[in-house]
Amino acid sequence: MSTPTPPLPRWADLILLPIINLFAAFFICGLIVLAIGENPIEAMGVMIKGAFVYSGGLGYTLFYTTNYIFTGLAVALAFHCMMFNIGGEGQALIGGLGAALASFGIGLYLPAPLAIPLAVLGAFIAGGIWGVIPGYLQAKRGSHIVITTIMFNFLAASLMVYLLAGPMLEAGQQSPQTAKLAESTLLPKMADILSPLGFDIASTPLNASFLIALGAMAVFYVLVWHTRLGFNIRSVGQNQEAAHYAGINVARTIIITMAISGGFAGLLATNEILGFNHKVVLNFTAGYGFTGIAVALMGRNHPIGIFLAALLFGALTQGGGELDFEFQSITREMVLLIQGMIILFSGALAYMFNPPLARMIAKFVAPKDPANG
Amino acid sequence: MNTALELKNVSKSFGLVKANKNINLAVEAGSIHGIIGENGAGKSTLMNIIYGMHRADSGEIHFGGQKVDVRSSADAIEHGIGMVHQHFMLVPTFTVLENVMLGTEGGLMLRDGRGAALERLLHLSETYNLQVNPHALVSDLNVGQRQRVEIIKALKGGAKVLILDEPTGVLTPQEADQLFEILKVLRDDGVSVLLITHKLSEIMDITDTVSIMRQGEMVGHRKTSETSPQELAELMVGREVLLEVDRKPATPAEVRFSATNLGYTNAQGVLELDDINFEVRAGEILGVAGVSGNGQTQLMETLAGMRHLTSGSLNILGTEVTAADQTDPRIIRDLGVGHIPEDRHTHGLVLNFEARENMILGFHDTELAGSGTLFDYKAIQQNCEDKMAHYDVRPANPRLNAKNFSGGNQQKIVIAREFSANPGVLLVGQPTRGVDVGAIEFIHKQLLELRDAGCAILLVSVELDEIMSLSDRIMVLCGGQNVGIIDSADADRQTLGLMMAGQRQEAAA
Amino acid sequence: MADFLYQLLLSFDATLRIATPLMLCAMAGIFSERSGIVDISLEGKLLSGAFVAAAVAAVTGSAWLGLGCAMLAGIFMSLIHGFACITHKGDQVVSGVAINILASGLTIVLGIALFKRGGQTPSLPRDDRFTPIEWWGVDMMDSVPVIGTIYRQLISGHNMLVYVALLAVPLTAFILYRSRFGLRLRAVGEVPEAVDSAGISVTWLRYRALIVGGALCGIAGAYLSIAQGGNFVREMSAGKGYIALAAVIFGNWKPLSAFMACLMFGFLEAATTRLEGVDLPLIGEVPTQLMLAMPYVLTVLLLAGFIGKPRPPAAIGKPYHK
C-alpha cells in the first residue's frame, strides 16, 4: 500500500461500512438469483412481505430473531475475550437437554412461577457446561478453542442422537424425541401474555423467551461495560500480557467467559424447546449457532447491533419461507446463501471497503487540511 | 572513489507517520559504513527499503552507479544486496542447509541443488570463519550461531552490499568481536558493509564512515576518523546529552524489599536468574545495570509476580515469598508494590482502551472504579482527569484510546497510575525508552520526588547515563548473575562496563 | 475363525471406501495449513465438489468432465478463501465458516434451480460414473488361498478415485519434503518473514497451496457423488471435511500420519456399521454413537495434550503483514 490510509471516522466505521458490506452481500446474491432466471427485486419484495407484512409474519420474524439474539450474544461475549466460540450449535443443543432435565425433574413438583426460572436456568447451565470445557482446555491445556468447539458440536449431536433415540425416547415413538415437557415449565406465548393487556396480536410461536432475550441483551451490556468481570474480559481480549501484568487471572477469565458464552447459547433452548416445541427434538438448533457468528460480526459485538442483525436474520429466515410459495426455482435455502455472503463480506472481508471508503471520505470531509493535500 | 550504493531523496510514510524524509546516502565500495540513530529514528525502515521489504513513496536508489527499481527482496538479492535482519529470518524447524537453500534451491527438486548449496555453504563458512554445522536444526543453535547462518544466507548469492541491522544487540561482547572480525574480512574482499546500530562504541571501533539519523531524517555524514562520540551523540539526539539531574543525597531508612538467593528457571529449564541477593531501603533508588538480555526482564517480572521464582526468597514489605508460594501480580500489587513495566505497549497499557480505563488497569477492583458492584464512570472519568492534570498528560482527554497518545504521554499515563497508588516499593523498567526530552526530565523528577517521600525504588534501564544519574546504589547483572553492587558515588563508566562484561566487583575496583 | 477373518477383510475394504474422501481432504488440509492458512472450509469445498461433479456428469454424461469441474469448483472456493484471508487479511476461521455456509446454500439453491428435485441431482447411469476397476488376474489369483481373497476384495475392485486418493498421500509427502515448492510451503507456514526476505512471494505461495487443496477437495467431492454414490443429495458431505481436519491435527500436520488417522477414523465407522446391534462378548451391545463420536473424542484428547503433543505450523492463522 503506497498511499497512506487516513483513519475512518467513527460514524462511517459503525454505520456506513456495515451497510456497504451488507449491500455487497445482497448484491452478489441478487446476481445469483438473476442467473437462476428470477427477479431479485421481486424476491426481495416477497421476503419483506413475508417477514413483516403478512398476518403473523412479524411474530415469526421475532421468534427467529430471539434465537439469533442468543447465539449472537454467545459469540460476541467470547469475541470480547478474543475467543472464537464456534460451538454455539452444540451448546444450544445441550441447553435443550438441560431444559428438558430440569423440566422432567422439577416441573411436576413446582408451580410455573418457580418452575420456569429453574428450567431456564437449566438451559443456561447446561449450555455453559458445554462451553466451559473447551474454555478450560484452551486456558489450561492450550487446545485451540476453534477446533475444540467444532468437535464439541459433533459430540453434542452424537450425545443427543443417543439420548433421544435411547434413554430419553418417548415410549411408543418412532422418531427420536422426548415426551412432552412438564406443563409448568413451558413458556407462555406472547399473544397470550399480551391479550389480557388489551393488545391483540396474531398467535405465533413468539413466546416469553423473546423477553428473556431482551433481558439477556441488557445483562450482556452491563456485564461487558459496567462490571469488573467485563473489564477483565475485555482486558484479556485486547492484551493478555497487559491483563496478566494488571493482576487479572487470564485463564480464569477465559474459562468464565466461555461458561457464560455457552450459557447464552444454551438459552436458545428456552425459545425452541420451552417456548415452541415443548419437547426436545433432533436438530432443533438448525444452524442458529453458526449464524450467531454472522450476527455478532454484523452487530459489532454490541447488544444494539446484535439486536438489529438478529432482526435482519430473523426476517430473512421468515421471509425466506415465503419464497417456497411464490417461486418455482428459488426456495428458503436462498437464505443460507445470503447468510454465507453476509459472513463473508461483514466478517472475512470486513475491511475490504475500508481503504477506498476512507480515502473518499477524507477527500470530501477534510479538503481544508493543507498537510493532507 | 567508487560508490556501491546511493540513495537520493528517499521518503516513506506509514499512515500519517513519516518514517523517512528525503534521505540521501552514499556508501563507498569496500568500506564499513555505519548508520547510527536512536530507537525509532527510521534506520530499520530505510534498510528495509534498500532491501525491497518496503517500497519508498518517492526517491531513487542507485546501485553500482545505475538507477534500479527494487520492488521486492528478490530484486534486491538480484542486485547483490544481502541483509541480516534484527529479528532473524530463520525457520527453526529446518536445518541450516535448508535455511540457506530457501529461495535458491537450484531446481524443482531439492535434490538437484542440495550438493551445490552445501558446497557453497562450506566454502563461505571456511572463507569467513563462519563455523556452523550445516545439518543441525536451527532450533538447536544459539544466538551467535544463528547469526552466522543469517550472514551465510545474506552472502550466498555473492552479495556486494551487506546490511546488518543491530547485529550486536543479542550478542555477548566476545561474539560481537568475532562478528567484527568477519566484517573486516568482508570489507577487505570488496564488500560494502552497512552497519545499523545505536551504540556509539561500535561505530567508533569498526566503521570507516558514518551517517547519523534523527527522527526520520539524515542529519549528517562523517568520516569516523574525523568525528568523536560526543559529536555523534549530539547529532543523534539533537540536544546536550549529559543528563543533569539535581539529586540530593539519599536518606535511606528501613529495608522495604529484599531478595535472598533468588533464582529463576524458565519453562525450557534454562537458569535465567542465579543466586541474586540485594536489598532496597525506603528512600533510595537501587539501579540495575547490564547489557540488554542479561536477566533484567526476568528479574523485574519475577519481582512483580508475573513469573514464579524457582528458588530463594523475597521479602516484600515484611511478607516472605518463596518458590512454594504461587504468587501472581495481584498478590504482589496488593502488598504495596508498584510496577512501571519495561514495555508499556505489551504490558503497561491496553492500547485499544480509553485513557480512563488504562488509568484504572490493575486497580479496577478498588475504589477508583467506584464503590458499588458496577463501574462508576463518573468516578473513573474524574480519577483520570485528576491524574492527567497532575502528571501533565497531553491531550488531557480521558476518552481517547491509549494508542493515540505519543510515547511520552503513554508513559505518563502508566506512571500516573502507578505513582498515585503511593506504593511502598516501586519497580521501574526503562522509564524513558522512546520518550521525548521534556517527558524524560519530568519523569526523572517524579522518580526522585517519590524517593524522597520514602519509597523504595528498583530501577532497571539499559541507558547507563540514566542509571548513573538517578541511582544511589547500582547492581550489575551479567548472565543472570549479580556481579556486584556498588555505591553510585564510586561508579564510573569504565568500572560499570567491566562489571557488565562479567568481572567481579573486587577485580574491577 | 475364517468367517471372522473374512468379515475383518470386508471391514478393511469398507474402511478404504470410507477413508477415501477423508484422505483427499486431509491432504488438502495439509497443503493449506502447512502454508499457514487455517482451513475449516474443507467441508464446504468437499460439498461444492460433490454437487458440481454430479451436476456436470448429469448434464454432459461424462464422469471425467464432472471430475474436472468438481476440481475447478474446489479451486474456486479456495480462491474465495484466499481472497478473503490472503489478499484482504481477513479472519481465516470466519472466512472458512462463510464458505461452509455458502456451499450449503449454493448447492441446494443451484440444485433446485437446475434440476427441480428438491436439491438432489438426477441418478447417474452406471456408465456416467467412476465404476469399480477389476484388476488383472483376479480370477486367476482366486485359486491362491488368503492372498487371492485379499487381492480380490481389498486391492482390486475399487473405483479409480480410491487409487487416486491412495496415490495422493505419498505424492503429498514427496512434494512437501522433497520439492522446492514443499520447502517453501513448509517455510511459509513457520516463518513467512523468512520466505519474504528470501525474495519469494508469500501471497502467491499461499494461493498455490490453497489451489492444490481446492483441487484435492474437488476430487473428494466427485468421489462422493459420482463414484461411491450415483447422485448428489443435500449436505452429502455430512461432516467429512471436519473429520478430515481432525485427521490432519491427529496426524500432526504430516501426510503419512494423517493418512493413518484417516484409516483409523474410517475403520471406526466401518466397524460401527458392521457391528450395529451385535452383542460382543465382554462389551455387550456396541454403543454406535460412541464409536461414531470417537474421532472427535480422540482429537479433543490429543489437543488437550493427553495423547502426545500436537505441534501446529507456527504461523498458522496469522495474516502476513510486511
From TrEMBL, chain A:
Q: What is its main location?
A: membrane
Record's GO cellular component, any one? plasma membrane
Q: Where in the cell is it found?
A: Cell membrane
Provide the coiled-coil residue spans. Answer: none
Q: Does the keyword S-adenosyl-L-methionine apply?
A: no
Q: Where are the transmembrane segments?
A: 15-36, 68-86, 116-133, 145-165, 206-225, 246-268, 280-297, 304-321, 333-353
Q: Which InterPro entries does UniProt cross-reference here?
A: ABC_transp_permease (IPR001851)
Q: Which GO terms describe its molecular function?
A: transmembrane transporter activity
Keyword tags: Cell membrane, Membrane, Transmembrane, Transmembrane helix
- How does the UniProt record describe the way this protein sits in the membrane? Multi-pass membrane protein
Q: What is this protein called?
A: ABC transporter permease
TrEMBL record, chain B:
Q: Where is the ABC transporter domain?
A: 5-240, 257-504
State where the protein is found: Cell membrane
Question: What GO cellular component entries does it have?
Answer: plasma membrane
The UniProt record lists the keyword Transport: yes
Q: Which GO terms describe its molecular function?
A: ATP binding; ATP hydrolysis activity
Q: Does the keyword Methyltransferase apply?
A: no
Q: What is this protein called?
A: Heme ABC transporter ATP-binding protein
Taxonomic lineage is:
Bacteria, Pseudomonadati, Pseudomonadota, Alphaproteobacteria, Rhodobacterales
From TrEMBL, chain C:
Source organism, top-level taxon: Bacteria
Q: List the CDD domains.
A: TM_PBP1_transp_TpRbsC_like (cd06580)
Q: From the Swiss-Prot or TrEMBL record, state where the protein is found.
A: Cell membrane
Residues crossing the lipid bilayer are 6-31, 51-81, 93-115, 160-177, 209-230, 242-268, 288-308
Membrane topology designation: Multi-pass membrane protein
Predominant subcellular localization, coarse grouping: membrane
InterPro entries in UniProt? ABC_transp_permease (IPR001851)
Any one Gene Ontology MF annotation carried by this entry is: transmembrane transporter activity
Under Pfam families, the record lists: BPD_transp_2
Reply yes or no: does the keyword Transmembrane apply: yes
Signal sequence annotation = none
**GO cellular component assignments:** plasma membrane
- Alphabetical UniProt keywords: Cell membrane, Membrane, Transmembrane, Transmembrane helix
Write down what this protein is called: ABC transporter permease
Q: What species is given as this protein's source? A: Neptunicoccus cionae
Instruction: Write the lineage as a comma-separated list.
Output: Bacteria, Pseudomonadati, Pseudomonadota, Alphaproteobacteria, Rhodobacterales
